[in-house]
């Protein structure tokens, strides 16, 4: 083995030795969190190197090498199987390592010879290409950068974790020839979609460096939808075709089922479920029991079971009521509270897409326009009198709450995904303590859990223009570093003229 080979085996043994002498139950809270952070950083670095190694294994296992490919010589039919065998990963994890490693390798190739980050001053042996047996073949030549090159370089440089990079890849989705725009009558040819996405990626990557994979995937999907409105329509059609509802009877005699619904229909079902299972349907005495120091967890679990049972009974009642309706009657009763959000300027231009309140996916503009037939509430974010009540009113009005639901898209806490129907309006400048005003800009939506937590634990919210920042109490962060509180509603739905 070459002396230059990184001593990863020795590093692994050092970690195992340290683990034998470390007992988490004996550590303070601070020591425990510091250790967790350090281990997480180590894991991310290991996964990055795994991805790069997996991509090289895939290159050495290409079909052109036949039985002499690395995977075949090691007794595996595919590179995925090889990576699974070596790493002990699931198939999904192995595929993520291979795909993220591939885009990192392609980015490095487009950057020229050198280290994976494109540094030309690195040892020139790194730029060599090996044949199927691992022997040196020829020096790699720079190639045209793929659209995802920025993601690959960020992984190679350690700026993105493998999980976040994979989430960005999935969020943006595949780009093929169907995504290339054709010029409309009288309009100049538009840029290809992959060019616009490649140009927007650096800003997206900078935003997602400190986000979870779930948040990164939503941000990437929002970017794709903003730059590719036609893709929203194609996805919606695919979702409609992919819907299903299956049922079967279990051995106990109970019936079990599963379904997948397109976003608008699913949101209606979810609104009914929320109405049937909302925590406030529970008796106040039951909810108070959640705080009991001994029986609180049990009380919460029992209450959850009760809510789910109520929802099941309510579903059966709704289906019976629906089946008894005269099929020749036009129904005019109130439908579930599902709100479609669309910008008036997008409707006038005929370009763009709408959004479902409290849902991460877009809906086609035609779907949003059709929803207007059932009525709509115009919302203006210009400081109009209907939205700004000053100190004449203590509570936010229904019009203000509706505007907040459009603006915030649900609970504004960065780690919460509860929809607007589960939220309450919160004064960021407290009404009594700070002489706070009941104005739209000075209120945000928070679910009941986070609303109480903010008040009881000393969390503050600061507004800078249209941006909101969460300020942790000193006991959580002595430096009280602000945490971004992004809206769950896509920014370009509120402002279609925002720059791409």
From TrEMBL:
This is HNH endonuclease. Residues 108-131, 473-500 are annotated as: Disordered. Residues 32-59 form a coiled coil. InterPro entries: DUF222, HNH, HNH_nuc. GO terms for molecular function: endonuclease activity. Keywords: Coiled coil, Endonuclease, Hydrolase, Nuclease. It comes from the Bacteria. Pfam families: DUF222, HNH. Residues 399-452 form the HNH nuclease domain. Belongs to the Rv1128c/1148c/1588c/1702c/1945/3466 family.
């Amino acid at each position: 083995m070459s002396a230059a080979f990184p001593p990863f085996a020795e590093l692994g043994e050092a970690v195992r030795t340290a683990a034998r002498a470390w007992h988490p139950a004996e550590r303070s809270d601070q020591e425990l969190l510091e250790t967790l952070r350090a281990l997480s950083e180590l894991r991310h670095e290991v996964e990055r190197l795994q991805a790069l190694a997996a991509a090289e294994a895939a290159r050495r296992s290409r079909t052109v090498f036949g039985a002499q490919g690395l995977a075949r010589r090691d007794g595996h039919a595919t590179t995925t199987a090889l990576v699974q065998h070596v790493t002990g990963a699931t198939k999904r994890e192995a595929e993520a390592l291979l795909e993220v490693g591939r885009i990192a390798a392609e980015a490095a190739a487009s950057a020229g010879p050198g280290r994976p980050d494109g540094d030309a001053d690195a040892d020139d042996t790194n730029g060599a290409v090996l044949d199927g047996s691992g022997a040196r073949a020829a020096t790699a030549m720079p190639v045209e950068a793929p659209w995802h090159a920025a993601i690959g370089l960020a992984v190679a440089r350690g700026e993105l974790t493998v999980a976040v990079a994979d989430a960005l890849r999935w969020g943006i989705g595949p780009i093929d020839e169907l995504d290339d725009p054709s010029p409309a009558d009288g309009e100049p040819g538009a840029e290809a979609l992959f060019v616009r996405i490649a140009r927007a990626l650096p800003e997206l990557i900078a935003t997602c460096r400190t986000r979870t994979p779930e948040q990164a995937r939503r941000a990437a999907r929002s970017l794709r939808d903003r730059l590719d409105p036609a893709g929203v329509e194609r996805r919606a059609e695919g979702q409609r075709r992919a819907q299903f509802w299956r049922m079967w009877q279990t051995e106990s005699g109970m019936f079990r089922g599963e379904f997948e619904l397109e976003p608008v229909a699913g949101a209606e079902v979810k609104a009914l479920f929320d109405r049937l299972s909302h925590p406030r349907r529970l008796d106040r005495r039951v909810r108070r029991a959640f705080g009991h120091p001994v029986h609180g967890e049990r009380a919460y679990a029992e209450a959850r079971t009760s809510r789910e049972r109520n929802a099941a009974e309510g579903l059966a009642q709704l289906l019976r009521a629906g089946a008894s309706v005269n099929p020749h009657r036009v129904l005019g009763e109130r439908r579930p509270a599902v709100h479609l959000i669309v910008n008036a300027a997008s409707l006038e231009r005929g370009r763009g897409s709408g959004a479902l309140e409290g849902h991460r996916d877009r809906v086609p503009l035609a779907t949003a326009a059709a929803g207007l037939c059932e009525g709509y509430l115009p919302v203006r974010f210009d400081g109009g009198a209907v939205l700004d009540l000053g100190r004449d009113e203590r509570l936010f009005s229904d019009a203000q709450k509706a505007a907040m639901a459009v603006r915030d898209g649900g609970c504004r806490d960065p780690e919460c995904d509860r929809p607007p129907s589960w939220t309450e309006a919160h004064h960021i400048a407290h009404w009594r303590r700070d002489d706070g005003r009941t104005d739209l800009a000075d209120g945000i939506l928070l679910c009941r859990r986070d609303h109480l937590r903010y008040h009881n634990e000393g969390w503050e919210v600061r507004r800078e223009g249209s941006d909101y920042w969460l300020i942790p109490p000193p006991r959580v962060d002595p430096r009280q570093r602000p945490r971004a509180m992004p809206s769950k509603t896509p920014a370009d739905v509120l402002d279609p003229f925002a720059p791409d």
